[in-house]
Design a protein that fits this description.
alpha/beta; nine-stranded mixed beta sheet; seven-stranded mixed beta sheet; 36% helix; glycoprotein
Length: 721
């Protein structure tokens, strides 16, 4: 009898199966249910031979399928006989329905019976359990598709990284959406001793699309069936995980299970390769589907059916490796104490709202990793060599060249900080107009500006790209806020990109660059989150794009900016109303009383009577809000927090010979808010202002190197201002 021992942690009982299949062996955390410890096979429907659904054509297809099944079955009988012989020559690990498991309390030597602790029948001492070598790489495969699943993967990965002591290699079978999101996330996460490979799930659809499936996971819920064909042929072992799993222990403990069965696996793999797993599961699926319309548990139904016919393929593990929390499982029989947990499986559509007397404990454990600061998981595995990462090496070289005694060191260092980034945190769905005039509103924000989102969505019906600077905990608060908003949930053309907090400065220009980079329209409106665009501005800009021929000219269309000091404002519905409010003192030109130079070149006096677009010239400190082509230059990352972040960008556009054109019937209004933390630092900290001045001078020198003689005017203008 395989013993369950209590070492540093207590163990519980659950259902995890070790599948030995050709070219690869996996541990798979099953999402389906089991009856009396046995996998449940597909449940055939009652005969529907006389149903109108079954036409003469479908009857012929069924007869043809039956012939095919009989042909392949004969071959499989022969192969099963070979496996049976092999089975008699080695220890067979089957789960006995009435077996008992005993646990040894640490330091006491007492043994006690664990309820439902049914495990496989081979003898093993916990203390003799082979350990995973210090630097042995653990391979993990996950199927992930879509925006929501990508969020779930992050929580799963956090729980794995938190406990791990070994290098990890993640094999992600993902659609194009999940790959884009997760590739960026791992690239910017920069966790040592972690490798990630992607496999195109869309290319695998044809392998399983013929299987009718009612499970909410859709076609991606069947992808695990083809892992042997998808993953590298030289990969012998992999742990296959669902996305709705939370680890409560080191995944190496699960990986160590493979060591127990080394002799068995080597022998069975040789036989199973001859048997061909692809043929096995396809044959089983075809046979089972003859008596039912579709699967209800996706790949789980097919795995269960294969296991029922070939029980020697399975090694059942104690269920503490898969404590399932759907309402139809008997999870409470799986453990005596919540500290016994190894893996929690949220395999219920209700997720955190499941019925369980310990649900608060489970929820808190899950929320711990959900809101855990992922930056803390960037710890080195000392003594384990990591693969050479060119980006990481370049980053370290750049940082090493900085002078740590420089009073502006922290400012300079921020330019090279890699912020963990989660693209498309919520579902996104948008196709640009075919006339190539579409415009995306681009902005950035932090937690204290969330209240602006609904208002902006009401004013701007076009696509929006937002970069949000949040902590892990704040990201979850934002998620709850968005999911509770009818306005935000009704909009699928808003891309929310989370840039996780790190360092002491607000990386305003990095955020703008992230939002700019992930637009799908040919043009973008570079705005700020505190501004509400006029009603109808989206359509007006699309018409202006055509009128000013932005596709073939280097123009930056200026949207004049105004402001109000009133928190409650009757927003002007026309230019005439806005001019009236200007005259009454309800509105002002933006920052006229504190930073006139920033928008003075817009020439508001001319704008009042203008009916046609008009050109203005660049002046020192000019920082208008503009509409440009998507191939526009990025913002300079050296400017963080408050000061010169937009000014530098407009200066560079002018150096690139952009023509600034003011739109006569467009406007935006800045809404009042409390001063930001960064502007407070600028006003109160002399060293902050000194460093900003130093960065400005260095930027102008860089401009001179890049643009030559034409950039001299910026030095002259700065000296005269």
């Amino acid at each position: 009898m395989l013993g369950i021992c209590r070492g540093r942690r207590k163990f519980l009982a659950a259902s995890l199966s070790l599948l030995c299949i050709p070219a690869i062996t996996w541990i798979y955390l099953f999402a389906g249910s089991f009856e009396d410890g046995k996998p449940v096979s597909l449940s055939p429907l009652e005969s529907q031979a006389h149903s109108p659904r079954y036409t003469a054509s479908s009857q012929r297809d069924r007869e043809s399928l039956e012939v095919r099944v009989r042909e392949v079955e004969e071959e499989n009988r022969s192969l099963r006989r070979q496996l049976s012989l092999a089975q008699g020559q080695v220890p067979v690990h089957r789960r006995g329905n009435h077996s008992k498991t005993y646990s040894m309390e640490e330091g006491t030597g007492d043994s006690e019976n664990l309820r439902a602790g049914i495990v496989a029948g081979n003898s093993s001492e916990c203390g003799q359990q082979p350990a995973v070598e210090k630097c042995e790489t653990i391979h993990v495969a996950i199927v992930c598709a879509g925006y929501n699943a990508s969020r779930d993967v992050v929580t799963l990965v956090k729980s794995v990284l938190f406990h791990r002591r070994n290098p990890l290699h993640f094999h992600l079978i993902a659609d194009s959406i999940a790959e884009q999101i997760l590739a960026t996330l791992f690239q910017t996460w920069m966790v040592p001793a972690v490798r990630v490979d992607f496999y195109n799930a869309d290319e695998l659809k044809s392998e399983v699309s013929w299987i009718p499936n009612k499970h909410y996971s859709g076609i991606y819920g069947l992808m695990k069936l083809v892992l042997t064909k998808t993953l590298p042929a030289n990969l012998e072992r992999v742990i296959v995980l669902d996305t709705d799993i939370t680890f409560a222990t080191d995944i190496a403990e699960l990986w160590a299970v493979f060591h127990k069965f080394k002799g068995v696996i080597l022998l069975l793999l040789d036989k199973l390769r001859k048997m061909k797993w692809e043929q096995m599961w396809r044959l089983t699926a075809e046979r089972e589907l003859m008596g039912m319309l579709s699967t209800s548990l996706a790949d789980q139904d097919i795995f269960n059916a294969v296991i029922k016919q070939n029980p020697f393929l399975v090694y059942q593990l104690p269920c503490f490796w898969n404590v399932q929390l759907s309402d139809h499982t008997r999870s409470e029989q799986c453990y005596r104490d919540v500290s016994d947990l190894k893996v929690i499986h949220w395999n219920s559509p209700k997720k955190l709202r499941v019925k369980n007397k310990h649900v608060e404990f489970f929820r808190n454990l899950y929320l711990t990793f959900l809101e855990y600061d992922g930056n803390l998981l960037r710890r080195e595995l000392f003594g384990c060599p990591s693969e050479t990462d060119v980006n990481s090496e370049n980053l370290q070289k750049q940082l090493s060249e900085l002078d740590e005694d420089d009073l502006c060191y922290e400012f300079r260092r921020e330019r090279f900080t890699v912020h963990r980034t989660h693209l498309y945190f919520l579902h996104y769905e948008f196709e640009p107009a075919t006339d190539n005039t579409d415009v995306t509103l681009v902005a950035q924000l932090s937690m204290d500006r969330l209240q602006m989102l609904e208002a902006i969505c009401k004013h701007w019906e076009g696509p929006i790209s937002l970069a949000l600077y949040l902590s892990d905990a704040e990201a979850q608060q934002f998620l709850r806020y968005a999911q509770g908003s009818e306005v935000l949930m009704s909009r699928h053309n808003v891309g929310y990109h989370i840039v996780y907090k790190e360092g002491q400065f607000y990386p305003v220009n990095l955020l703008r660059n992230v939002a700019m980079k992930h637009i799908s329209t040919p043009y973008m409106f570079l705005s700020d989150i505190d501004f509400l665009p006029m009603y109808g501005l989206y359509e007006y800009l699309r018409k202006s794009v055509i009128q000013l021929d932005l596709a073939n000219t280097k123009k930056a269309m200026i949207v004049p900016a105004f402001e109000t000091l009133r928190y409650r404002l009757s927003f002007p519905k026309s230019k005439a109303e806005l001019l009236s409010m200007l005259d009454m003192g309800t509105l002002f030109t933006f920052r006229y009383h504190v930073w006139t130079k920033g928008h003075a070149p817009t020439n508001f006096a001319k704008w009042r009577t203008a009916t046609m677009p008009y050109r203005v010239e660049w002046e020192a400190d000019f920082e208008p809000y503009v509409v440009v082509r998507r191939d526009c230059s990025e913002y300079d990352r050296r400017f963080v927090g408050f000061g010169w972040n937009k000014v530098a960008h407009i200066m560079e556009l002018d150096a690139q010979e952009y023509e600034f054109t003011v739109l006569p019937n467009a406007y935006m209004i800045h809404m009042p808010h409390a001063p930001s933390f960064d502007i407070t630092k600028f006003r109160s900290n002399k060293q902050y202002r000194i460093c900003l001045k130093t960065l400005k001078e260095e930027f102008q020198q860089d401009m001179s190197r890049r643009y030559g003689f034409a950039a001299l005017k910026y030095l002259t203008a700065e000296n005269n201002s």
